[in-house]
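EI: anyone free to look at a 696-residue chain?
SC: sure, send it
EI:
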Amino acid sequence: MEPAAASMLLILGLFSAVGTLAVLLVRSNKKLQKSNEKTRSSKDSRGKTDQEKLIKKQEKMLFRNKILVNVLSKNFRNEKKQLDYVLHEALKLTESKVGYICFYNEKKQEFTLKTWSKGMIKEVEVPKLIYRLEEAGVWGEAVRQRKPIILNIAVVEPSAGQKFPGGQKIVGNFIAIPIFIDEKIKATVGFAGKEDRYDDNDVDEMTVLMNGVLTNLERRIMQKKLFEERSKYFQTLISIGDGVMVVDPAGKIEMLNQVAQQLTGWANEEARGKHYTEVFFLSHEDHRQEIIDPIFTAMKTDQTQELRNHAVLTAKDGSVFHLEDSAAPIKNEKGETVGIVLVFRDVSEKNEQRKEIEYLSFHDALTGLYNRRFLEEELLRLDIEKNLPISIIMGDVNGLKLTNDIFGHAHGDVFLKKIAEVMRRVCRADDIIARWGGDEFVILLPKTTVEQAKQIKKRIKTEFARDGVQVIKGNISLGCDVKTSVDQSIMECLDSAEEKMYAAKILERDDFKSSTLDSIITTLQSDCPQEEEHAQRVSQWCHDLGVTMELPHVKIRRMKLAGYFHDIGKIVLHKDLLEENSERTAEEISEIKKHPIMGYRILNAFDDTMSLADAVLHHHERWDGSGYPKGLKGEEIPFLARVVAVANYYDRLLSAKEGEALEKNQHPLIHLEKIEGRFDPEIKREFINMIKNIPS
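SC: here you go
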């Protein structure tokens, strides 16, 4: 409810109370008037004096009721103004000259002077407003004795105790009346200076009047406090970061705060008065399921309702938000439900995070396949008779390490993703495909015979062979087994599939490595034919030098192979870097210098070429230590690498690759002879002699 609406309700409540009291007073006045007429017309034996007293009493009742009506209906600026008015009228009602009104706190035994009649306290003095009970004189007896005190005596010389609050001495008749509310003294009133005697009628009139006044004051104070609290809570609801919607008992919307307007897409003015189901369209995230309506349930049960997860709000523009919300009954001072407040928040991001966590707990982050944990649970769940026969295929990807070593782990990840795609494509929707380990996969096939499993295995190998990363062709070793009876162990079936997979891997390993090495060489040759020609020539130079140096046949063969494979690492270079270009950027030169390391990794991956890896790694080292990649010098450089270095450089000179470094018409051999510190002097001398002895 908005502050303006709350204020209006408060004013209407006051007018209602005043109106009710006014009706009662009018009726009372009519009865009194009729009674007066009867009294005046009757000729009772009590005589005219009694009639006059009765008429006077009734007139006082009317006057007192008039005061009450004014107290309830007039708009006083504050409590002091209201009590000043009451005291002024009470002096007339009691025919007194002076008087006061004090509030009393029984717990503290303390009076608070609220208002006093003019002249009771000297105008120049600042009145004392707080009095302890023990400080109160005769006017405090009304509290001490808990009953009205009436003194109808002519006091000529007042004692110290016969004083009003503020110090004014009591002269003449005096009355002090305690005002009780809920059996506790809430106030005292005192009057003095009446010419006639004070009597019980004065007590009754003042008790009724002050009870009405104090009850009204307390009611106004409570209403003000309630209004302030409601305003505070209302402002809180408006300003909090959650959406807030207030509906009345009929389900009509009374208020939407700013966040609620943003989430629903409805302005507060548009939504007010509409049934909440027109604005707050709630559903389950799974359209096949029903969502509990928190507002309806809160109204029905009169209890707070909470929703967690799965609740979806569809906004006016079709936007969808995942919600967490709670609906609570709104109670009035009587404990009656006067509406429902719904507090809700957008948890779409939180919901996505929850789903991602749930997904990752059962899926492999890289391939999107199920993970080992999920598969182990599914093995137990699906291991029932109705799923027999249950086949299991286990696979191990070949070439992953080689791909990682040569091209980096990013390419290795692509390799794994491709086999995952192939398996999804080949397998059925109900089959369980999981990444079991780094390069191992398991496929769980319920209601699948071993023959069907073998067909699936064959299709996976065939389709994966068409794919690959760079020059590494797709290859996977697969093994399968089947559980056909309830007595068989599903875990033993898994172990058997693994054993068959490893057996296949051993049988296929040599073929795979051979084909992979051939693929690397073929790819390099096709990308750069001149590199193939260069490799062939360097290989021949190395062979011829070995023969010239009369080395053993086995060593000569290794020299020839080292010459052939020395630039195999260039397979990782971009085609543009394979082309001869004298102008290279520092970054391009840095990339080119990586090829000996890549060649080393490639050759180390195969048993037949492992012994050549060091020669390839160091063929750009220099005798003086200025080469790369490790800066070795002298005989630290492997012998084969020193041989390849000379043959490689000489062939580059012959093919004009180093032509700009030559003097005009200078023979490559003369240039080679002049270079110092780059090559092994002995090997260079043997190589030069070999070239010179070649028949022209």
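EI: The chain is about 50% helix and 15% strand.
SC: 👍
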